[in-house]
Specification:
With 1011 residues, the chain is an alpha+beta fold. The chain is 28% helix and 25% strand. The protein contains 28 helices and 53 strands. The strands form 15 sheets. Strands 15, 17, 30, 31, 32, 33, 34, 35, 38, 39 and 40 form an eleven-stranded mixed sheet that branches. The relative contact order is 0.11.
């Protein structure tokens, strides 16, 4: 990469109105800190209402009927059903009297599953009756007066079905306000929102969780005229979210039933009608939901933490609750860190390192990874001391850091005591130093690479990254340091107290290093045969989740919020040496434990481990296939030797390029063993090296030859081979996992869905020259599944439904499928590609996908899908799964260069080299990077991923468009300048991906369309 390109760095931001308010109050007030409810609320209320709604299978997904169980908490038996019933739409008797008779028939024939002394008959209520007589009775006024718990699996979906109206929530257009009750307006006689009943506010958090609460009631007090507020925020528990928080697993009701209960969910394809089979299916779902509630309650109650289950949104929620239980105060609530320090740390923040080094080459490998990477580097750097400190001071460390970097060698960095010196930040003048670089690679891909950086302007980096740069430098020359500082802990905060993790593992924050204690305890528990197997497995798994959730992500948690359509909010931006005020349509309120000083150091230290491993492998004469956050596939076989590889420094007898293949003994003795020096744990608990040879390398206790094939970062597979067949052992779903599975099944050995294994088997057969057998799902359209969680998308879907009652409109949280359209020739005549996104109500029946009627979310028009080779001009041509998998194999590793120094292209093979990055001018300042596709979530907002960029006078310009930059390069500079009526200089800026004025972007796009 010889062109000069911009680099992107993260920024610490503060919302000016909020910060001024907090300054007046004299406290730090993170925006998304869960509000502390007034009064005492029990962890588990005495009453719970478990609901499940069945719907039509058209795009409305409107309520057909639902089951509920009103449960009372029993000390011995958990939540016991004391009333069971069915609810149905208010218009059902008029609109479908036969359906009502079927419901009545079921009620007459089936008693309620309640204990003696409670109603023995199933209740049958209309939706309105259910809301008034059951729902509000549980929410607002159960017999004990504390507020009951509303429970469901994918609860937001069920609440959206039983609501009578929905509006966009006022605050920042981030969610919905649901009306549950209506009455007649005494003045007009028309139906209105009942002012004595609260609305329900649902704000999606991510694909796995949503914030659900009651709004204030709308009535005004007769004497004061003030608006009355509901006395409770309500208690709403989505068991899908709680399961994610407890086990770090994305469960369906079926898989949650297997994990937490001994009863099974029925296998049934919903029909959208009211039938006896459908009613029994729904009833069983509610049985399963209650059983899952019991199982999750038992699991949750093992944790001695002050956290209510309906506020456990992720594993990080539980980790943060344990930190609070130990008495820790969040860093920015007790440390007076200057904003300039936070800005420098945020500029130094990058995520995990992932790259492909040896592309499209079949090589033997030994797959290794680091033991609990982030907890381990926390322990090595002694960051627990800082987290528990009473205060910190900022200390100039320029001379010390210059001397430290000058002393870096592999042996020095392998000394665990050296790591205590790494918590520092330095402003450096990059001059070809190998550093994390966030830029646009290959002119089209925004990514982070570990590459040589040359910059006119200095940049802030965390200490471990600078040590890694010194290690990886061919000349061992360290980066040039301009200024450096340390954040030095002082004292120990008051109020620290011991806690028993899951009730069994005691940690004293005064004397124990939390991260160290968790990893040591997990190792001891896994080896302790006196603990029952089930409890040993559960506790060990929990400690693994806790160690990871509590050691990194919470320190960089920001929660992007869109301010509102057409509006912007003032923010102050701090990044490195620069600070300025600007306005932005998106703001980033921090999480309660946000502190980029820790986040930047932890991820940099993880990258340092990989750099140290890369250097050690290189010193042994070897190379690696790939690395992925905490792992590296080292090119090695049992006896070693050479392997054909374009760009390798060795030669085979036939003259082909080759790389050295280390032996297994080389890996064990000369590489893995060296990392024993960095083991910070009690050797009686965790012995040996922190670098582990993974289980995939072994079969029946013996090491076997493992082969690897890599396409790009996170796109690789490990496999074994016999003379005429292969067996995929460890395939990665990155770049495929966002698609809806075309077939059921999960390969437990490979740890991934069966269809991903079959896709990689097909890829590897082609790469090895073996006969390829197409999977039976190859001809199906490539589909993504979403929940509608974005108000803007819902407005488009409802644009042609104005005037229809809520029941007949598309609703929030509907599940939909969206086909990938062939970007070459897949759009119907007269349709623009950037305004064409099709959706259809979700159905798992792949045989129907071609025959469905799809809705374009941009204009509300309907389209059909055409089959390959038979598409009509009015139809859309989807990519087939065969198209996706075929293209997947050729995805370039854009952040590296080909062996000959050219750009890495689809057919590039061999040993890739690092891309030199040369930048001029100031960095560009960005917010949180999200690419929801790779999160594999069900959120339609992933169709339009965006990264906010902060600049002074933001309203005058646009964020640079990578697609525009790519398209401009395809046209002659002078030709385009004349056609668009702009200067050559402007066209050059567009080619570089620079930011341009809105009017200029419009001129260029118009000219490109006309040329």
């Amino acid at each position: 990469m010889n062109d000069r390109v911009p680099i992107f760095v993260r920024a610490h931001t503060e919302i000016l109105k909020r910060e001024k308010r907090n300054e007046r109050r004299g406290k730090y007030d993170p925006a998304n800190e869960a509000p502390t409810p007034k009064g005492s609320r029990p962890k588990w209320p005495k009453y719970a209402l478990v609901i499940d709604a069945e719907t039509t299978i058209d795009e409305r997904q409107a309520l057909t009927f639902g089951f509920y169980r009103f449960c009372r908490l029993d000390a011995n038996d958990g939540y016991v059903c004391i009333e069971e019933g069915i609810f149905y739409p208010d218009d059902l008797p008029k609109g479908n009297p036969n359906a009502l008779s079927v419901l009545q028939q079921y009620v007459d024939a089936h008693p309620a599953e309640t204990p003696p002394g409670y109603p023995a008959q199933l209740q049958l209520r209309s939706r309105a009756e259910f809301i008034e007589q059951v729902f509000w009775r549980v929410v607002l006024n159960p017999p004990d007066g504390t507020g009951g718990l509303i429970v469901g699996f994918n609860l937001a979906f069920d609440l959206a079905r039983i609501a009578v109206e929905c509006r966009t929530a006022r605050r920042r257009n981030q969610g919905w306000s649901f009306i549950m009750s209506q009455d007649n307006d005494p003045q007009t006689g028309m139906l209105r929102h009942n002012p004595l009943r609260s609305r329900i506010i649902i704000k999606p958090k991510d694909s796995k969780a949503a914030f659900i609460r009651l709004a204030g009631v709308g009535a005004r007090g007769k004497k004061t005229g003030k608006r009355l507020k509901a006395y409770t925020r309500g208690r709403f528990l989505d068991l899908r979210t709680l399961g994610w928080a407890l086990r770090n697993e994305s469960y369906s009701l079926k898989t949650a039933s297997k994990a937490f209960t001994d009863i099974d969910k029925l296998d049934h394809e919903p029909t959208g009608r009211v039938t006896l089979d459908e009613i029994e299916y729904c009833r069983q779902d509610v049985r399963c939901t209650v059983a899952v509630l019991h199982g999750m309650k038992t699991d949750f109650d093992c944790h001695p933490i002050d956290l209510q289950p309906d506020q456990a949104y992720s594993p990080a929620s539980i980790a943060k609750a344990y930190l609070r239980q130990m008495g820790l105060t969040p860093p920015l609530q007790k440390f007076a860190l200057p904003r300039e320090v936070l800005g420098a740390a945020m500029q130094a923040y990058y995520g995990g390192r992932a790259e492909c080094r040896n592309r499209h080459s079949l090589v033997p490998v030994v797959y290794t990874d680091f033991l609990s990477e982030y907890p381990t580097v926390n322990t090595l750097m002694g960051l627990w001391r800082s987290l528990t400190a009473e205060s910190v001071r900022i200390e100039d460390a320029t001379e010390e850091v210059i001397n430290l970097l000058a002393s870096v060698t592999t042996g020095v960095v392998l000394n665990s005591e050296f790591w205590k010196r790494l918590p520092f930040f330095a402003l450096v003048q990059p001059a070809g130093d190998i550093l994390p670089v966030r830029t646009t690679y290959n002119g089209e891909t925004n990514n982070i690479g570990i590459n040589p950086l040359t910059s006119e302007n200095p940049v802030w980096y965390a200490g471990p990254d600078l040590v890694a740069a010194a290690l990886l430098s061919p000349s061992r020359r360290p980066p040039e340091v301009i200024r450096a500082f340390r954040v030095v802990p002082e004292g120990q905060q008051a109020g620290l107290k011991p806690v028993a993790l899951r009730g069994m593992v005691e940690v004293d924050p005064k004397t124990d290093d939390f991260f160290k204690k968790v990893i040591e305890s997990r190792a001891r528990i896994k080896a302790d045969q006196s603990i029952p197997k089930s409890e040993r497995k559960a506790l060990s798994y929990f400690l693994k989740i806790l160690a990871n959730a509590g050691s990194y992500g919470l320190f960089v948690e920001v929660n992007p919020e869109r301010v509102g359509k057409g509006t912007r909010e003032k923010v102050q931006v701090f990044s490195g040496e620069n600070q300025f005020e600007t306005t932005s349509p998106i703001v980033e309120p921090p999480g309660p434990w946000y502190c980029p000083v820790f986040a930047a150091l932890i991820t940099a230290a993880g990258r340092l481990l990989l750099a140290l491993l890369e250097r050690t492998v290189g010193d042994a004469g070897g190379t690696y296939l790939l690395c992925d956050t905490d792992s590296m596939a080292i090119v090695a076989s049992e006896l070693g030797g050479l392997a054909a590889c374009i760009g390798g420094s060795h030669r085979l007898p036939d003259g082909r390029d080759a790389v050295k293949v280390l032996s297994w003994e080389d890996v064990r003795g000369n590489i893995v063993k060296k990392f024993e020096q960095l083991n910070p744990y009690d050797r009686a608990a965790v012995s040996g090296s922190i670098l582990k040879i993974e289980d995939v390398n072994y079969f029946n206790g013996s090491q076997r030859e493992l082969l690897g094939y890599a396409i790009a970062a996170k796109r690789y597979a490990l496999f074994t081979r016999t003379q005429d067949s292969i067996h995929v052992e460890n395939p990665k779903a990155h770049g495929l996992g966002f698609l809806y599975p075309p077939k059921d099944g999960f390969d437990e050995d490979a740890g991934t869905p069966v269809w991903v294994v079959e896709a990689w088997d097909w890829i590897l057969q082609g790469a090895l020259g073996l006969p390829q057998t197409d999977p039976d799902w190859f001809s199906l359209p490539a589909m993504m599944r979403f929940k509608i969680t974005t108000p803007e998308v819902l407005k488009v879907l409802q644009a042609r439904q104005i005037g229809l009652p809520y029941r007949d409109r598309v609703k929030p949280f509907n599940f939909v499928l969206s086909p990938l359209i062939d970007d070459l020739d897949g759009y119907p005549i007269h349709c623009e590609s950037d305004r064409f996104t099709l959706i259809v109500p979700f159905t798992p029946d792949a045989s129907r996908w071609y025959s469905l009627s799809y809705l374009n979310v941009h204009d509300g028009k309907r389209y059909r899908l055409g089959r390959p080779g038979r598409r009509l001009p009015s139809q859309a041509q989807p990519q087939t799964l065969a198209d996706v998998v075929s293209r997947y194999r050729w995805h370039p590793e854009a952040k590296s260069l080909a062996p000959d120094g050219a750009a890495c292209k689809r057919d590039t093979k061999g040993l890739l080299i690092r891309t030199p990055v040369i930048t001029t001018g100031e960095p560009r300042y960005i917010g949180k990077e999200t690419d929801r596709r790779w999160e594999q979530g069900e959120d339609i907002s992933m169709l339009n991923p965006e990264v906010v960029e902060y600049r002074p006078n933001e309203t005058a310009r646009l964020v640079a468009d990578p697609d525009l930059a790519r398209d401009v390069r395809l046209v002659g500079r002078r030709t385009l300048a004349i056609a668009a009526g702009v200067s050559d200089k402007t066209v050059k800026a567009a080619r570089r991906g620079d930011r341009l004025r809105k009017s200029t972007v419009g001129k260029l796009k118009k000219a490109l369309n006309e040329l």
